[in-house]
Amino acid sequence: MRRGVLLYGPPAAGKDTVTAALTELDSGYVLFPRLKIGTGKTRGYRMGTPEQLADLEARGDVIYRNDRYGNVYVVDRPGLDDVLDGGRTPVVHLGQMAGVERVAALFPARWVRVLLWCSKETTARRSPGRGDTDTVARLAAWDATQADLADHPQAGWELRIDTETTAPREAARSIDHLVRSTSSGS
């Protein structure tokens, strides 16, 4: 069965940290490297060009696209297919409910939806600590995430994790347990 994890939350909520803990727990979990067109951080992304994006869009292979921080971030069908080869479980990081909804609706897999949360104060503290040079933009994105959640009160989260009170390994074990139990039909 094709399966994946959708991690949603504001900037600095711990998506990278929890994903690292998941991959330590089970090497079958793989960060889905979104296609990024732009500048800045490259780790965890497949860097692309505007021409690649236009080609994907022309073929209908863009599942979700968002523009933030002056960049374009893409969840694409060929990229997800590539990660799912060999039975791997992609962990997709998203910061918009529209992305969660589109990936779940447009890419056939058993998606486990996980909300990672932290306070705005925690984002303000964590952001510069992880090397962000645009913390003000990250805090604006935190506000947008909170508003996004308010607009989607029935989002269908299968798991909610407060990363201020839950250790990354504990979060990873909870996610893994849910993925395994839903994959087995329990």
UniProtKB/TrEMBL annotation:
Biased composition, class Basic and acidic residues, residue ranges: 170-179
Region called Disordered, residue ranges: 163-186
Origin: domain of life: Bacteria
Pfam families according to UniProt: CPT
One annotated GO molecular function: kinase activity
Record carries keyword Lipid biosynthesis: no
Keyword vocabulary terms for this entry: Kinase, Transferase
Transmembrane parts of this sequence: none
Protein name: Guanylate kinase
Species the sequence originates in: Streptomyces chumphonensis
Taxonomic lineage: Bacteria, Bacillati, Actinomycetota, Actinomycetes, Kitasatosporales
